[in-house]
Amino acid sequence: MTTTSWHARASALQIDGRAFIGGERVWSRSEQRFDNLSPVDGRNLGAVARCDGADVDLAVAAARAAFEDRRWAGKSPAQRKRVLIRFADLVQQNGAELALLETLDMGKPIKYSQSVDVNSTANCLRWYGEAIDKVYDEIAPTAENSLALITREAVGVVAAIVPWNYPMIMAAWKIAPALAAGNSVILKPSEKSPLTALRLADLALEAGIPPGVFNVLPGYGHEAGAALALHMDVDCIGFTGSTKVGKQILQMAGQSNLKRAWTELGGKSANIVCADCPDIDNAVASAIGSIFFNQGESCNAPSRLFVEASIKDQFIEKALAMMPDFTPGDPLDEATVMGAIVDATQLKTVMGYIEAGKTGGASLLSGGRQVRNESGGFYVEPTLFDKVDSNMTIAREEIFGPVLSVLSFDTIGEAVEQANATPYGLQAAVWTADISKAIQTARALRAGTVHVNQYDGDDITVPFGGYKQSGNGRDKSLHAFDKYTELKTTWIQIG
Fold first, then answer.
1. What confidence tens digit (pLDDT) does each residue in 278-304 have?
2. Active site annotation includes 138
3. Of 15, 67, 321, 393, which is most buried, counting CB atoms within 10 Å of its CB?
4. What is the pTM of this model?
């Protein structure tokens, strides 16, 4: 589709901003709404329901009723599989619409909304649908006069609160295993990017997920999100977002009914490049591509680049040559690889960190400016700082924008020590031709995922999550079922 076609389709788009409760589109009980502004050009995409505690009560009641009457939980795994696969098919069939909504809502390039977000969402739904009738329960090795069954059961009503940077993918990572296991789900998308979540609800109903089983509540975190976290009839909450809000979610879970609370939080990932890196050009391309992908708005972005001192100048020279490839462009142009920052608030945050880098003593080698102001949207140049040390603000705090900090090291031990000197522990990487060094470094790095001689390796079959203040849960893989199921022991005496 051409750029002109995407713009024409965007102009003709009809937005339905109503919530989805009990199988129906509805406005919030309070009738309050908020404007959904696009970071692409500042246009108002339409009014969206501003849900609060009253709407949460309705959605929880609908979800609880659906769970208790077994309209979904009572279906066989094979039956749930067929519906989830149909759901995945509908996501792909409506991929162009979903991609457009995603790009208009949060500013990512349309080429990635199509190739990454739509496809990953469909793949996730399909994979968990396929997996659920292949997960076996257990029989414990007890004495001959007893039979002990260990079975998994759906936990009940699951609340999923997801962020704005990958709205569809983050939603799928939570709703797919939760639904596959037989739970009822309430999805609370970010107020910055609610549109694809609402459209997914329509497709879920069309696929055959019964009314009340999947509900979507747009709204603000301190209203709808807090009400879900505090609700006494929500059994489990899965949250992806900032560490600050994750801590609040855990506190609210404890204050209410001790609901299970699973968090996937922030990151300040370290990318360590040793002098014996087997392919320096590949390492440069990976370092630059990974930090500037999705405008740097990724919790796992390798924002701290540690380069061994003897190759640092060469590495930076090659990196600077690549920077123009990531010049921000029109997100509805399929040639664009870096789009808009999600909103004015996040733009201000990113620019504040760039200023902190300059005043804090780092050397700004490239970028650092707001651009495309005439568009009405929010765009920042890809930014590269050198001469950064681990005590600087830009090396300690999560920026969530296209800002890369370069630090140097002389020994791998020094690099690991600096890499671990952060409250976060989401991802890391090491580049070296020495397999022993690679394994020893991977073991020493306190991160949920450690990449070796690459950074972008990923698959639905491997878990995603972090150590320390990067959270306590794992999305993806069969391990995700641990979050949304209860383990039950049934002890049968024989004779």
1. 999 999 999 999 999 999 999 999 999
2. no
3. 67
4. 0.97
